[in-house]
User: Which sequence fits this backbone?
């Protein structure tokens, strides 16, 4: 990449906006944390000047809003400095969340594709099931995640599966809707051509419908994996779960450990971005192999 | 001829379903389900399938009937599911802690309307509606501002897209710490959850109008605002409504999840988490039914307005 393309591209605007966000963040750190310091000084009966407050607002133990460097330091301390098997390691917690995310994502993708295949091939399913698939997403499943977990717990199903179930529920929808579109995307001309070859339904599916639905599949997978992660995190909230990023959020909110909440949140954000990026990479590689890349 | 036959068989199927279902229910009330009951249940299911299949294949001359039929088909499907749910939970004696039958949930809804109404008032009327209006409004306003500067648009859009994919629900504990236990903190979560989808979609929509049309507006010597209101905003409507629809479900989720982190003793999320703890699963299901109903109506209203305003869009013509 040469200089002109950097200047013309979106690198500089993105960096500027990011810098602005950090500036606003630091400003609000000072603004929101200062009252506590003033209060402390007043109790001690001392006068405190603004230049004294400034560094103190960025080094509180339980700040209203932690400074960026505090969050980064906490992430560094709980990822690199701790053993991975330790209960205090964020990598350990992220792995717990990631494993149920991936399992739920896999199940959701399979279910979504299966539903789409059924809907495309059966008029009855299309008319009766499709409206309910759409309605299913107006049910705030995230809100009832706790019940699903507690109830499944009561029957003796524990660990990965209940969380994965919530991820599955959230991720099957984008896949099903996207795949219905994708499997119907072949041209009428192409379908007619297959017909003149007297191709069977299975042949039409494998040689025409499936290949032409792949771009749609990957677009939906990107939405689905982000939804899966949210499902897994919220699934960890209710049971007083001991492990996972959601459990870190909950523990942090119980004990007022703001820095812990923020660091768990950032690791979750990083995880989401990485997963979406990874699917984007696979997407490009697959489309290139299939000769569909632009 | 063929049409007549399928109408007759459909009517026969409805009568058959009615009779078989009534018989199954009389058996359920006795408390013992014999094999015959299960066979009839399967028959109800098969007949319902046949009925739906029949109706789906019919072609109608009048537009009104075909719309009515396209509503009736999913309704039959849903009723069949409810029937199977009821029969299986009661017939197999599944403990109601695990999955209460629909009749028990309906009874619970009827007997505790005042609690449900108070929760609805707290969560939906206050947190969801306020947060939704604020979040969508802010997202829209920022999108209009950003749109004026290509530099900001280039810088903000990748970040907006990234943030829209992040688990924003996770900010709920922070918001509860900042804004306290009452509905304001829930509204804050809803605001940040709905802000980014609105921003990203509106900015994408504002560039949806074609070059030709924009050039035409230029030849009319129309000002920036005239172009915005007469061309670009109408062209952006499908995108804006897409965001409004996504947000209508997100808002409800955000408000309910935020209540898990602390509330006054009222609210849908509060009720769900406490009743789960007391194993009153039918109350939880009653709240879920209400949330689902509220979510569907909210979504349906937004879609109706969309249909009115974007009648010109290819998907509605």
Assistant:
């Amino acid at each position: 990449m040469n200089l002109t393309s950097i200047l013309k591209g979106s690198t500089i605007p993105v960096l500027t906006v990011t810098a602005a966000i950090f500036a606003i963040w630091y400003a609000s750190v000072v603004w929101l944390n200062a009252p506590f310091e003033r209060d402390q000084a007043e109790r001690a009966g001392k006068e405190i000047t603004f230049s004294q407050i400034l560094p103190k607002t960025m080094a509180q133990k339980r700040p209203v809003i932690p400074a960026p460097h505090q969050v980064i330091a906490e992430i560094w301390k709980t990822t690199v400095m701790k053993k991975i098997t330790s209960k205090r390691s964020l990598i350990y917690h992220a792995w717990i969340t990631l494993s149920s995310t991936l399992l739920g994502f896999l199940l959701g993708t399979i279910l979504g594709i299966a539903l789409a295949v059924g809907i495309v091939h059966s008029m009855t399913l299309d008319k009766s099931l499709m409206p309910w698939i759409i309605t299913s997403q107006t049910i705030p499943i995230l809100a009832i995640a706790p019940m699903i977990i507690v109830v499944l717990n009561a029957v003796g199903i524990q660990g990965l599966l209940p969380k994965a179930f919530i991820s599955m529920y959230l991720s099957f929808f984008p896949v099903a809707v996207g795949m219905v579109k994708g499997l119907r995307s072949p041209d009428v001309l192409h379908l007619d051509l297959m017909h003149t070859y007297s191709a069977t339904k299975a042949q039409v599916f494998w040689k025409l419908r499936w290949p032409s639905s792949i771009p749609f599949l990957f677009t939906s997978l990107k939405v689905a994996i982000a939804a899966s992660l949210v499902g897994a995190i919220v699934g960890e909230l209710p049971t007083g779960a001991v492990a996972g990023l959601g459990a870190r959020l909950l523990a942090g909110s119980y004990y007022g450990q703001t820095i812990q909440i923020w660091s768990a949140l950032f690791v979750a954000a990083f995880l989401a971005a990485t997963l979406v990026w990874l699917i984007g990479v696979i997407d490009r590689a697959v489309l290139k192999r299939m000769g569909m890349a632009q | 001829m063929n049409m007549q036959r399928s109408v007759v068989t459909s009517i026969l199927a409805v009568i058959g379903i009615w009779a078989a279902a009534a018989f199954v229910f009389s058996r359920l009330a006795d408390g013992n389900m014999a094999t015959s009951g299960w066979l009839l249940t399967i028959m109800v299911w098969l007949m319902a399938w046949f009925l739906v299949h029949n109706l789906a294949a019919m072609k109608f001359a009048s537009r009104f009937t075909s719309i009515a039929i396209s509503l009736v088909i999913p309704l039959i499907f849903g009723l069949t599911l409810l029937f199977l749910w009821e029969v299986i939970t009661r017939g197999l004696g599944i403990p109601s802690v695990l999955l209460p039958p629909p009749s028990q949930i309906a009874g619970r809804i009827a007997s505790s309307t005042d609690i449900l109404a108070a929760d609805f008032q707290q969560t939906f009327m206050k947190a969801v509606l306020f947060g939704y209006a604020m979040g969508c409004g802010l997202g829209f306003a920022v999108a209009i501002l950003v749109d004026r500067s290509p530099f900001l648009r280039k810088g903000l859009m990748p970040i907006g897209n990234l943030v829209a994919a992040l688990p924003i629900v996770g900010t709920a504990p922070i918001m509860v710490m900042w804004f306290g236990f009452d509905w304001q903190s829930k509204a804050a979560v809803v605001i940040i959850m709905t802000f980014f989808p609105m921003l990203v979609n509106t900015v994408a929509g504002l560039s949806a109008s074609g070059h030709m049309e924009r050039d035409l507006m230029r030849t009319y010597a129309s000002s920036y605002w005239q172009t915005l209101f007469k061309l670009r905003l109408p062209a952006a409507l499908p995108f804006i409504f897409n965001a409004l629809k996504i947000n209508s479900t997100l808002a409800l989720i955000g408000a309910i999840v935020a209540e898990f982190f602390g509330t006054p003793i009222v609210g849908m999320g509060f009720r769900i988490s406490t009743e789960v703890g007391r194993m009153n699963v039918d109350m939880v299901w009653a709240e879920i039914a209400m949330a689902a109903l509220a979510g569907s109506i909210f979504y349906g209203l937004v879609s109706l307005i969309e249909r009115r305003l974007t009648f010109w869009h290819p998907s509605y013509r």
Chain B touches chain A through 61 residues (CB under 8 Å). Chain B has a mean pLDDT of 82. Residues 113 and 170 of chain B are 31 Å apart (CA to CA).
